[in-house]
TrEMBL record:
Lineage: Bacteria, Bacillati, Bacillota, Tissierellia, Tissierellales
Self-association state and partner proteins as the record states: Homodimer.
Organism encoding this protein: Keratinibaculum paraultunense
Location within or outside the cell: Cell membrane; Membrane
UniProt main location, coarse: membrane
Protein name: Magnesium transporter MgtE
Family: Belongs to the SLC41A transporter family.
Organism superkingdom: Bacteria
GO molecular function: magnesium ion transmembrane transporter activity; metal ion binding
NCBIfam families xref list: mgtE
Transmembrane segments: 280-297, 354-374, 380-404, 416-438
């Protein structure tokens, strides 16, 4: 069913047909369809869905849609949703909805669950603890394989994943892991401690979610255990949750690299004033910092009056310098984000960018010399001055573009801030200083 057919069926009030067709669809697609409707109509159709499907659909709604539905459903409907949602999905919702809605949800939760919710909400935002779930299969090392499989059959239906099971002691300390595959193919009389893997990769509750994402990428896990400072198993993070984190982090980096304040609002749904607010701050900072460029030009007014032709090449030099710096900063920022580059590699980065910049600078300078000497009909000295400046500008730009993100990382600042717009502003000022200094020496002005 597509959006057009859904609206036709609603217009004809064929809700039984809608229910039957939606039951055959994936919950993700159903959520997307219902979000295209006004909230009252969406709620009407949502209430016709089977309870299990309704819970899955609710989990895939946007935060805005969840807020609206929670405020409209009855306490009984809300209790069912809260009871059936996976714990991490419920925490995600509670972190986003208003305080009065959180209170309404907590009132419909069991006391034990309410205590757990309050504990989870105290974890720092963007930490491993804030995105984990408590719905995992735990085993004891003195269990036999047969007992473990029976335990999984009894409890696995309510768990987020059963593919990896976690072996804990009486104090919940993580001792090992065992895969469902290993359990299925092992002799049923073997003990769990005989087949479990003791060298466990895990993260701590307060580790940053970017660190968690790098661990997932490095080891290719489907789930990752989360422990506290005493090594006790607190929860697990599943691959579907970390995919959302990776998407959020990538979006945030792109926004910072484009000189915008990060926001999770969807572009078409965001208010124009909200979008303007996120953009104007950095634009003001960059605009004001660009006054240095104007100051440099004014300082060398006499030079420009004596050789007016030099003015024609200022945009080319500034653009090339900015582009060269942006290339380097983009690659280094991406390398840092993926964990391929660490602060200790600063020397290697600077050396590599220096060599690259020399190669690129020579090629650009030679091509530029012949271009302006042969086709722009300017003198040899002017052509040589512009080309030498271009070479020096490219070298400086690429080294700065490579080193600034590394400095930011060492200072615990997001390296994405040191991207295109900021690099361009710095390089513009430096390229002008280099240009006028070389011109003064070579042209004796």
């Amino acid at each position: 069913m597509d959006e057009k057919r859904l609206k036709e069926l609603i217009k004809e009030k064929r809700y039984v047909t809608i229910k039957k067709e939606l039951e055959k669809m994936n919950p993700v697609d159903v959520a997307e369809l219902l979000e295209s409707l006004d909230v009252q109509t969406a709620l009407l159709i949502f209430r016709t869905l089977p309870k299990d499907l309704a819970v899955e659909v609710f989990a895939h709604f946007s935060v805005e849609q969840q807020r609206e539905l929670v405020s409209l459903v009855t306490d009984k409907e809300l209790k069912h949703i809260v009871d059936e949602l996976y714990f991490d999905d419920m925490i995600d919702i509670l972190e986003e909805v208003p305080a009065n809605v959180v209170k309404k949800i907590l009132l419909n939760a069991k006391e034990e669950e309410r205590n757990l919710i309050n504990q989870f909400l105290r974890y720092p935002p963007e930490s491993a603890g804030s995105i984990m779930t408590i719905e995992y299969v735990d085993l004891k090392k003195n269990m036999t394989v047969k007992e473990a499989l029976e335990h999984i059959k009894e409890t696995g239906l309510d768990k987020e994943t059963v593919y990896t099971c976690y072996v804990t002691d009486a104090n919940r300390k993580l001792e090992g892991i065992v895969s469902l595959r290993k359990l299925v193919i092992s002799d049923e009389d073997l003990l769990i401690e005989d087949i479990m893997e003791r060298d466990v990769i895990y993260v701590h509750t307060h580790d940053d979610q970017e660190t968690v994402a790098r661990v997932f990428k490095r080891y290719g896990f489907l789930a990752l255990p989360v422990v506290d400072n005493e090594g006790r198993l607190i929860g697990i993070i599943t691959v579907d949750d970390i995919m959302e984190v990776i998407d959020q982090e990538a979006t945030e980096d792109f926004q910072k690299m484009a000189a915008m304040s990060p926001t999770e609002e969807k572009y078409l749904e965001a208010n124009v004033f909200s979008l303007a607010k996120h953009r104007v701050i950095w634009l003001l900072v960059l605009m004001i910092s660009a006054t240095f460029t104007g100051g440099i030009i004014r300082k060398f007014e006499n030079l420009l009056q004596s050789a007016v032709v030099l003015t024609a090449f200022i945009p080319m030099l500034m653009d090339t310098g900015g582009n060269a710096g942006s290339q380097s900063s983009t690659l280094v920022i991406r390398g840092i984000a993926l964990g391929e580059i660490a602060p200790k590699d600063t020397g290697k980065v600077v050396l590599k960018e220096l060599v690259i910049s020399i190669i690129v600078g020579v090629i650009l300078a030679v091509v530029n010399f012949f271009r302006i000497y042969l086709f722009d009909n300017v003198g040899f000295l002017i052509s040589f001055t512009v080309s030498i400046t271009l070479f020096v500008t490219v070298v400086i730009s690429k080294v700065i573009g490579g080193i600034l993100p590394m400095i930011a990382k060492k200072l615990n600042i997001d390296p994405a801030i040191m991207a295109g717009p900021l690099i361009t502003t710095i390089v513009d000022a430096l390229s002008l200083i280099v240009y006028f200094s070389i011109a003064s020496c070579l042209l004796n002005i």
